[in-house]
Structure formats: C-alpha cells, structure tokens
Amino acid sequence: MVKKAIAVDLDGTFLHSDQSFDEARFETFLNQWLDQGHEFILATGREEKLIDHLFANYLDRLNLVVNNGAVMRARFDSQSVAAYLSQTALGGLQAIIQKFHPTDSVLAFSDNHFYGIAGFGERDSGSMALLEASFGPIIWVDHLLDIEEAVTSVTANFGEQASEQVGEYVNATLGEIVHATTSGMGALDVLAKGVNKASGLEKLLTKLAIAPEDLTVFGDGMNDVEMMQLAGQVFVMPNGDARLMDLGYQIASFDNNADGVFYEAERILAQEINN
C-alpha cells in the first residue's frame, strides 16, 4: 500500500466564509481516510494555538503545517518544530511598517502569545475574540524589538492591492533574511527566509514517510503556490485567486461554501477503498 496525504488550506478552501465546516462530514471522512493508512494535514497561515482551539476535537488525528510553514507538528508528536524571525529581520520590518503604515493592525506571533504594535489600529472584534480565545489577551508593544520571546511571524494589513506592492518591497529589501507572502483579504505575512507551506510540508512528509508525489493539496491563495508545486495532485478552489487558474491545475467542482474539498476528497477516498 502506498501511504498518501491530503493537505488543505483553511480560509477560502476548507472553511466556509463564516469560519465553520461540516463537522459530522469531516468526522466520517477523517476516520475512513486514516483507516486506509493515510494522513490528513491542515496547511494554513493561521497560528498553531488558534488551530488547537478551532480543531480541538480532532488534534490527535491531524498533522499541522501552520503560520504559512513556520510551524510544523506531526499528529504523534507533542512538540511542534518552528522557524523564527531574527532580531535583524524584526528591526527591518518595523522600519517598513512605519514607512507604509498598515490600515488594519500589525500583529506578531510567538509560540504562546500574540502581540499588537501600538499605533497601527486594531483587528475587528470578531477576529480579536477568536485570537484571544486561543492565545489569551493581546500584549501591546511599541516596537517589534520590544517582544522578549522568539517570533514566528508578523502579519500586517495594507489593503488588497497595497499588500502585493509592500510584499515585493519587503522581499527586495529584506529577502536575504525573510519571506513575505500575501494570504488574502489584504494581509501580508512575513516569515523567516525559506519558510513557506511547502518547506513545512517537506519536513512533515519526511517524518510521515510520504513522498511528495503522493500528496494532494487544496488551496485558494498565492501563499498556496509553493505547496501546489510540491504536490503530486492539486485542486484549486473555484473561488480562488485568479492567478492560480492559469497554472494548469485541476479546479475543484465546488467552492469552499459548497464543501468543494469534501466533494473531491471523498471521491479520492472512494477510489482508495475500491482499489
């Protein structure tokens, strides 16, 4: 038997627009998929503690590649593996943030806390409530270098168009030490150099003894491109970034709100059972 894995992005892919998913359907699929000897992976820009909160009932059955690849955790491990931003990177990012002034908050994430940089606004109340339910209260600081623990990622919202331009600027000026990627809705995520969903997945697949060609991925955004290039089978969500539609990948039959991931994944599962 060839061991396989399915990796899904969350926002715009697996989750509905209201952040929900069909839990009963997922429970059934997940158990049957694991019974076939395969693995299921959440590959998201969301943070580990938030995923632990949202998927608390499934954690013993899920592998995680979170923070856009900065953090990886196999389901049989109690500890995650993380890549952190350097102090030089944080200082450079602070200067860029002050130059371009984000429209809707600057957040930085460590393993166990999240920080807001004062003077750049706040997230909407719904987002903040979810983050605080996962991490505890936000910690406000004046400067990224005021954070006294290792930082896995920095997220800032510059608006839909500006985030692309600022991301290009970050990669041009700090590209030797960081990697910036857009994650949708005008957000820009900054990670350590060489970190993306594919780099996290490569480490995880090695741990799970699964070849990249036996990986199927689902995604909708430009921060999914690297893992799409890694995988043997790819489904782009029909509601995804228009640029993904031109890359030659399969388009899922239904969007995220119509459970497009389940439709395709259940077809893959049926083929496995019938073989």
Automatic annotation (TrEMBL):
Kindly give the SUPFAM superfamilies that the UniProt entry links to this protein: HAD-like
Q: Which Pfam families match?
A: Hydrolase_3
Instruction: Note the InterPro entries from the entry.
Output: HAD-like_sf (IPR036412), HAD_sf (IPR023214)
Q: What's a GO cellular component annotated to this UniProt protein?
A: cytosol
What GO molecular function annotation could you give as one example from this UniProt entry? Answer: phosphatase activity
Q: Which Gene3D superfamilies match?
A: 3.30.1240.10, HAD superfamily/HAD-like
The entry's protein name is: Uncharacterized protein
